[in-house]
Amino acid sequence: MRLSLILLALLLVSGCTAGPDYQPPDLNPPEQWLSTSRPAPVVDWWRTFNDPVLDGLIADAVRSNLDLKIATARVREARAIHGATSAGYYPSVDAKAGYTRTRSSENISGFSGGFSGAQGSQTGQGGQPGGTQSGGFSNNGEEFGFFNTGFDATWEIDLFGHTRRSVEAADADLGAAIEDRRDVLVSMMSEVARNYVELRAFQRRADIARGNVEAQTKTLKLTEGRAKAGVDRDLDVARQRALVQTTAAQIPALEASAAQAEYQIAVLLGLRPDELHLRLATPAPIPPAPPTVPMGLPSDLLRRRPDLRRAERQLAAATARVGVASADFYPRFNLVGSLGLQSDKLVNLFDAKSLAWSLAPSLNVPLFQGGRLRANLDAADARTDQALRQYEKSFLVAMQDVEGSLVSYVKEKERRAILASAVQDNQRAVELARARYTSGVENLLSVLDAQRSLYAAEDALAQSDRTTSASVIALYKSLGGGWEEFESPK
Q1: H-helix or E-strand containing 286?
Q2: Residue 339: in which H helix or E strand, if any?
Q3: Closest listed residue to residue 35, CA positions, set 488, 419, 406
Q4: Cα 140 to Cα 100, 101, 133, 337, 472, distances in angstroms
């Protein structure tokens, strides 16, 4: 009866939980971005480029990217650790069976009764059951043995929340692992898209160079014919041939850069370079950036961007571990017991008279630890402060990423419009210079200058198309979009 009352009192006391209760901090985000605050459809942002090849690459990367598989394995690991930590709520029960043979010393006297063989009537170190004697030795020098079988059980009653806080920390660690997988997913998709844009841009620039080489070669043939007729000088032929060769020299470097981008995509898809080459070898247009990129509210970042969500979960885990360190200052109560059968003869082991049991409650009160408990608590407090500052910093970096990507996108669109107009003007200039050169009004230098300017403008426009699309990709990455469609496995 008394034991039942004690257990009831301990269970009531176990409602107390040491340490602070976690409350997510308020980072006070601004009400809107500097440029816009329209809703942001970022769940499947890569489809805004309307490129089926890009869609297929993203889908393949989600299935086979190695970094994502590693992050998924970490989620499974964190889930298993959470399960192991939660097991602390329940008793630990072990089955046992054995035979003991012993001989008493002939040089010890004054005891009687012999070994009982009971297990678990005293608590060993760390709350584990240990063997005891029921009365000493029956006869000096006597040799005897006995059989035993049964169960040993230990249970630590969570008086002050040591286990509860540990489970809270493990739960937050699991959440952080899930967010880390989402962050890897967002980064991986943006890297696939960015490298795909780079690949198409290098292919486009190589095509532009080939087109200019073809146009410049036509002019070279015209110049050579005029030189044979005595109209132009050999110097004009040499100048035009040099321009053709200079332009042609750009092509190998652009092709090499395109191959490097293709190889990088293969790595992101978990493939060898040769396994992807046929899908990407044929040049295609640079995926055009959407005409507008809607944005959400700054507060949406806290709900959507995985690295911020991960930092918040890491802060929650650190706060819970302050509770774990605080609980170490309080007493810990253990129940240790055993129930089994013991007999000196195997045939009598399962008789009712062979029943043996023990119950050993214990209370462990920390009195002196040389400052270890206080140091552990101070360290946990310091780690919580680090996690809080990291969370605050992560939010500021996220704001910077969004605003920086947004202004890059807006300004590059302005630059692209200017370059597009410049290309048209340079094309007209080449046509006029060539016509005037053919009619003898202008010399070859005018044609050379116009052709150089045209190639430079077309190449700059292609690079601007690449930069515009890449800025949109960076913007979507900074918004943390895309992981919702490929949620973490259960």
Answers
A1: none
A2: strand 332-343
A3: 406
A4: 18, 15, 16, 31, 90
Rg (Cα) of the chain, in Å, rounded? 39
Is pTM beyond 0.85 here?
A: no
Distance CA 390, CA 318 (A): 12
pLDDT in tens, 156-209: 888 888 889 999 999 999 999 999 999 999 999 999 999 999 999 999 999 999
What is the DSSP-derived secondary structure letter of residue 294?
A: -
Residues with Cβ < 8 Å from 169, sequence gap 6 or more?
Answer: 85, 317, 318, 320, 321, 324
Pair 354, 341: CB distance under 8 Å? yes
- Residue 314's alpha-carbon distances to 300, 310, 425, 478, in angstroms, are 19, 6, 57, 20
* H, E, C per residue of 390-448: HHHHHHHHHHHHHHHHHHHHHHHHHHHHHHHHHHHHHHHHHHHHHHHHHCCCCCHHHHH
Nearest-angstrom CA–CA distance, 286 and 469: 8
Q: Is residue 125 packed enough to be buried (19+ CB in 10 Å), middle (13-18) or exposed (0-12)?
A: exposed
Cβ pair 316, 383 in contact under 8 A: no
List, in sequence order, the alpha helices (H) in 328-371: none
